Amino acid sequence: MSTVVVGSGLGGLTVARALSPEPCVLLTPGVLTEGAASMLAQGGIAAAVGPDDSPRLHARDTWRAGAMTGDRATIDRITSAAPRVVGGLVDLTVPFDRLPDGRLDLALEGGHSRHRVVHAGDHSGATVTAAVADAVSGLPSVTVVTGQRAVRLVLDAHGAVAGLVVADATGAQRTLEADQVVLATGGLGGLFPHTTNPLTALGQGVALAARAGARTDDLHLVQFHPTGLDVGRDPMPLLTEALRGAGAVLLADGHRFVGELQPRDVVSAAVWDALASGRQIHLDARHVDGLAARFPSVVALCAESGLDPRRDLLPVRPTVHYSMGGVTTDARARTSVPGLYAVGEVSRTGLHGANRLASNSLLEAVVTGQAAAADIRAVRGSGWRAEVPPADPATLRAAADTRVGLASVRALLGEACGVVRDGATLAAAVGRLDPLAGDDAAYVAWLVARSALAHPHSVGAHRRSDDPAVAATHGVPA
Q: What share of the chain is helix, strand, coil (3-state, %, to 5)?
């Protein structure tokens, strides 16, 4: 029995580590952790470890932030696991920030009713992911294969995973035999013109899975972070939500206009509306205490563009940050294709509902990665029964020798699937992308636009300007 893990971000690394001492191949297109979105995460890991907190409150906040559309059992399971996840990372000697008395320093972020974000400065994702990568690098059970990208899943006569076709930088292909393939490929933000994601995040895992017949869900639910630093860089630098938790405020033409600590979908929509009306939007962090010491990565990012958050107003705009939808999985990370697992952002677990609560993503990567590894170890010799419905046949397209310019795909998806969408623009985008779906990037963009068109009502991060049943409302600070 052999396992191939595709992706070396936190989710994939967690699978490889949790599988040990059973062998696996860890496949990555660059070197270990290169291009992984988890390396860019600034905030931290949400976990109810404070004396005034509980997993029940964490679950409530997750449910509410997700517009009360998430899967309650999944939310309860993952938030209940959060303290254990943090404890495991502490045991791995991840250097989380602490108070003078030795307790973990807990940050407050939008949508949270408690200070519960465990962090390592404002570079938590890189710190945590690097620590797990170091642990994995020392495991004899893990064979790391670099410079290879996944091209196509190989299925047997019964539709189960039998291998994976991979290609090197020259395009030369070979097939890795595998009884299980774990997709840990990250998100699809690189398909949008304004994104904080690595530009290599093009939904490759969604394309691989869907072309093999796996079910996908909620691909229209794409979260926009309200405070991308708007300085013309691609990808956009992220100004962490923790800045607003520490007291930074949003200004439109110099005046506050929104409750900064509301869930991201609400704040992003307010910023989008203000920009559309011609107002200048800035984040004012000049009065945040100890800013340079608490947010060194933010200070460095701003300095690269000639800005200093201690004295300058920072121009911001909403930017694609996270995909709540993806390859549909059950509690064991199984997809609808036997032998195929998905973990982290590429998966659709139901945790996030229609809008991800801040700092739940690294948590999900660890919990789903551990679940996949546990199931792979337990499934030996047993049958496959995933608690996932079959795919909608209308979403399945075969690959073809079609080459589409990525810039045109990004422009089209940005126009059709921005913070606010409408049916006519979506229908036009679906029609234009349909004949191009032999190309993986165009295929995933088509799936996103098609999903958005199929959902006429606004919910969470999906806002339809032509939905007469919902009037847009934005919180205003007292």
A: 35, 20, 45
Number of domains, the chain: 3
Is 386 contained in some domain? no
pLDDT digits (tens, 9 = 90+) for 192-220: 999 999 999 999 999 999 999 999 999 99
Question: Above 80 in pLDDT, residue 468?
Answer: no
How far apart are the C-alpha atoms of 114 and 54, rounded to whole Å?
Answer: 9
pLDDT in tens, 422-438: 999 999 999 999 999 99
Quote the tokens at residue 120: 């390592």
Residue type, 15: V
Q: How far is CA 313 from the centre of its chain?
A: 28
Verify that 364 and 427 share a domain, yes or no: no
Residue 216 β-bridge partners: 327
In a domain, 243, yes or no: yes
In the DSSP assignment, the letter for residue 389 is P
- Nearest Cα to Cα of residue 412 among 396, 397, 428: 428
Cα–Cα distance measured from residue 471 to residue 309, given in angstroms and rounded to the nearest whole number: 35
Q: Report the catalytic residues.
A: 264
Q: Is the pTM of this model over 0.85?
A: yes
122 and 239 share one domain: no
Instruction: Tell me whether residue 476 is in a domain.
Output: no
